[in-house]
Specification:
The protein is mainly β. It is built from one helix and eight strands; from the N terminus they run E-E-E-E-E-E-E-E-H. The protein is elongated, with a radius of gyration of 15 Å. The protein starts with a strand and ends with a helix.
Length: 71
């Protein structure tokens, strides 16, 4: 099986959730701490962790409706 990408000095088939593929270097890099999943760069979030929502700028921001429910 082909493992064309590099993650922590290991060859992998795909970058796992929480990482994105740098197309130039073919390496997997960690997403920013706010992103559950990301693409292209660490701050372009695709999905967010619980309690956060995706903004129009593809960044995860605190979901105020969620935080009000948990108080």
């Amino acid at each position: 099986s082909r493992r064309p990408y590099l993650l922590n000095n290991e060859c992998v088939k795909d970058c796992p959730d929480g990482y994105y593929l740098n197309q130039e270097t073919k390496k997997c890099f960690k997403c920013s701490s706010m992103c559950a999943t990301c693409s292209i760069n660490p701050d372009k979030c695709l999905t967010c962790f619980e309690g956060y929502k995706l903004s129009k700028k593809d960044q995860c921001v605190q979901n105020l409706a969620y935080s009000n429910l948990t108080k």
